Amino acid sequence: MLFIPLHLVVLAFIIFLLARHDADLEWPKLALVFAPLIIIMSFVSAFLGVLSLPIYFVLVSFALHQWFYVGWGKASLISFLFLIYLIAYSFLMMSITRPSQTASHLLHTSSSLIV
Question: For this UniProt entry, which segments traverse the membrane (predicted)?
């Protein structure tokens, strides 16, 4: 569950960059609003895959507008940048945790040659 504090820090950084004068940015509120949202959407994305991105975009935009007093335009931009970060993070984690294609291909071809 190390990804939750990392995502919260990145989201706070994006909010600070784009809406530092508009947003009511407080760490406890950020954690209480977005930590459950991140956990729920990670489970939803396991079932829906790419279809969960529009849902996540709407929920993050709504949460920013409702609890952090950011306008809809900035909330949408922050949500869009946060989704780009989440997609890049997932690709990075997949590339780190999955074995390379060439190594698995060599393993399969060498075992077929033995048999």
Answer: 33-64, 76-96
